[in-house]
Design goal:
alpha/beta; Metallo-beta-lactamase, Chain A; Rossmann fold; six-stranded mixed sheet; globular; binds zinc ion
């Protein structure tokens, strides 16, 4: 088997990785670059967009830097992704009022998909996207394991995930987002939960959480911290729809103690109004929100909602929890939102951990799968891999 990294060998995001034999060509991921825009030119990968030159594309998870090019892939090429990851993407598309834009088949954990003379096995792994996988390709006694994006600091025990992986692989294609930098060890989600609970108890004012709606682990963390500090947990419709699509065990308005709000007014025939209306008694309006102790999940585009609530309830001793990658602070809408929160009297706190493996986690993976060769991807410092070269 050969491996060709079309994109992502020395950058974070936009990964396109080809694995093949003399007979079969498959791809792991076809993502858009992190700073890409609508209408960005497609990368040159022969047989991917122009004709059905690949036998299948397997997406490791549903972050756009891995799946963003799916709509442009030639419709003759079968696409595969985790079942719950597809459900989350469909919920996002529904909220936006757009079709998903591509057909994709579900793969199941540890169930082989045979494509030509390659067998692909997905192994579930923890990441800041829900239903993320490592992908193992095997053909004629050879094996290639692609890590996708992963971490050991989530709520799934890493030991158990590791134990399912083979004890030897020929080639390991490994993400190195956090490699080559300061190597600071990750904080776990349960530690974040402790920190959040303490903060939510210490402060008497309202708590707003700015986080990615697709970061399902973080939803669980903030829900638990809200509960433990005697606050009602309130999601906006977008997060509610994503959480509900992910799994019934993820906090969503079907829980007795979770409420859902709409951040602006829509007419009764708008699809968002209709989706909201289906939540019945779990719906909550501004006046009711203002009347109680809450943790409310917000997005940077919700300045009006924040201003409106500030007129109804006291913001002093309240918190704005920044709970996403610090790189997003440069986005103009985030700059404006953080400024507004400060001007309304909220204190900003940072509570976040990375969705990616730290060095210790990568060491443990490499020790377990004992690869003959390691290829670095999803990294700005590809030379980190030299330390793992065999004799
Ligand atoms: Zn990624
Ligand atoms: Zn990712």
């Amino acid at each position: 088997m050969y491996v060709e990294v079309h994109r992502g060998a020395n950058q974070i995001g936009g990964s396109i990785i080809e694995v093949g034999t003399a007979k079969t060509r498959i791809l792991f991921d076809a993502g858009s670059e992190l700073d890409s825009f609508d209408g960005a030119p497609l990368p040159e990968v022969d047989g991917l967009f122009d004709r059905a030159g690949f036998d299948a594309v397997f997406f490791s998870h549903n972050h756009l830097d891995h799946v963003g090019l799916a709509q442009s892939i030639h419709p003759g090429i079968p696409l595969y992704m985790g079942e719950r990851a597809i459900a989350v993407m469909e919920a996002m598309a529904r909220y936006l009022g757009k079709p998903l834009g591509f057909g994709v088949r579900p793969y199941q954990r540890r169930e082989q998909v045979v494509v030509g003379d390659i067998k692909v096995t997905p192994f579930i792994i923890d990441h800041s996207a829900f239903d993320a996988y490592m992908l193992l390709a095997e053909s004629d006694g050879e094996s290639v394991l692609y890590t996708g994006d992963f971490r050991s600091s989530g709520r799934k025990p890493f030991d158990r995930e590791l134990a399912r992986l083979p004890a030897h692989v020929g080639t390991l294609i490994c993400e190195g987002t956090n490699m080559g930098g300061k190597n600071k060890p990750s904080v776990s989600e349960s530690e974040l939960e402790e920190q959040a609970t303490r903060l939510f108890r210490q402060h008497s004012g309202p708590v707003f959480v700015l986080q990615a709606s697709t970061n399902i682990d973080r939803i669980v963390t903030m829900y638990r911290a809200a509960k433990r500090s005697g606050r009602v947990f309130i999601q906006d419709l977008y997060m509610a729809e994503i959480a509900r699509a992910a799994a019934p065990t993820i906090p969503n308005p079907d829980f007795d103690d979770v409420r859902v709000y709409l951040d602006r007014y829509y007419s009764e025939d708008h699809h968002r109004y209709q989706a909201f209306d289906e939540y019945g008694a779990q719906k909550i309006g501004r006046a009711k929100i203002a009347n109680q102790k809450f943790v409310l999940c917000v997005r940077a585009l919700m300045a009006k909602m924040l201003m409106n609530l500030s007129e109804r309830t006291e913001f002093s001793d309240g918190l704005l929890v920044y709970s996403m990658w610090n790189g997003y602070r440069d986005k103009p809408e985030v700059v404006r939102f953080l400024q507004l929160a400060r001007s309304l009297g909220l204190t900003e706190v940072y509570l976040h951990n990375s969705g990616h493996a730290d060095k210790e986690t990568i060491d443990r993976l490499i020790e377990h799968v004992n690869p003959d060769k390691v290829i670095a991807v999803h990294t700005e410092n590809p030379s980190w891999v030299n330390a793992y070269r065999k004799g």
